[in-house]
Specification:
The chain has helices at about 10-25, 50-65, 80, 85-90, 105-110, 160-165, 175-185, 210-215, 235-245, 260-270, 275-285, 305-320, 345-370; strands spanning about 5-10, 30, 40-45, 70-75, 95, 120, 145, 150, 170, 190-195, 225, 250-260, 290-300, 325-330, 375-385, 390-395, 400-405, 415-420, 425-430. It has about 450 residues and is α/β, with parallel strands linked by helices. The protein starts with a strand and ends in an 11-residue tail after the last strand.
Length: about 450
Amino acid sequence: MKTVGIHTLGCKLNYAESAGVAAAFTRNGFALAVDGEHADVWIINTCSVTGSADRECRQVIRRIRRRAPDAFIVVTGCYAQLHPELAASLDGVDAVVGSREKGRLFELITDFRRRDVPLVLVSPGDDTHFWGADSSGFGGRTRAFLKIQDGCDYNCSYCVIPQARGRSRSESPGAVEDRARAVVVRGYKEIVLTGVNVGDYGRTSGWSFHDLLCRLEEIEGLRRLRISSIEPNLLTDEILQLASRSSRIAPHFHIPLQSGSNSVLGRMRRRYRKEFYRDRVDAVLSHLPQAGIGVDVIVGFPGETVDEFEETHRFLSELPASYFHVFSYSERENTPAAAMGRVVPVEERARRSAMLRMLGAEKKKQFALKFVGSVLPVLLESDYSKDGAAMFGLAPNYLRVRVDADAALENEIVPVVIDGYSGGAACGWLQKREGEKGRES
């Protein structure tokens, strides 16, 4: 039996799509190779959100070619869509497959034999086609990433994703619901809704994200429904009210900010100002006081002055967030930001990133310590000790928890008493169940 290996870079959406590619290969008689195993075919599903993502893509291709000199290498994803000729020129690449073609590999490639001239199968931006995917059955995860939306109409001045993925479009509510039910049947406790701009779900088709949430939370057997990320202007009071009533929608909202300076937000072409963002965070906590709130922020945007950065730092210092994702600005070709001038030196970008990461680490710690003495339901995901006696898991509010537990409890939701914080995670112990001995005090 031939084997296929899949290496995924970037976001949860890419991970869901990689699973869809894996399913196509298994349907066509391939076995999935695990890390370190030989594979006859390698699929590299790429990201291009930053310059470092592009570099990592090239490094992965070179590393796989050295490890598997006879393998057929396919490069797909955003890097392939945006730079097909460059991807095809990399030593060892046999095929470059665009975003529209990613779900049709077996229609487009009749055999996976090495060739002298790489195939380039990349069509222009995808504005209408929707390829549904989810990560169930791929990678042994306890949470499944479910793709509901693709593309983006926002055109922020720094972003290439609309070029790579086209305009916003969504899968129908019925199709999403059918896929979600199938995921639950496979034993997954949590579904994470993914897309490029999830909150924009259904806008061009007369559907709404709120209505989709209402349908999905009624699925029998589903324990948790999590929103991967949502723009602040799309996080409505209606959604928050639904989440506050629901026992399944996770009290966790990852809300991209990008800057705490209104002048920078304007240059970024973001659709809100910092006052509105703070209002949305306050609204979350008024409905769901224990909610986890994640923040994306970009530092070193063209023209970002010391005062503008300090404004962002102050804003984030005062924001009741639970963690940050900090990115140094990266120039992207064919974006308005790349032509703005007033470039912030790379070293200064790194310094500012380090400052915000330190602040984010403290926010993460303080968020975890708020729950010391509380009992949280934790979905156990993986063991971190050689003997399998200690596990990591996630609480509904996205708090990462380390607990002494048997590996047999993987994919179970268990009550954990939080008693501290160490190594970037909350620490706790399994609460005593009826008929069991609890931890000695």
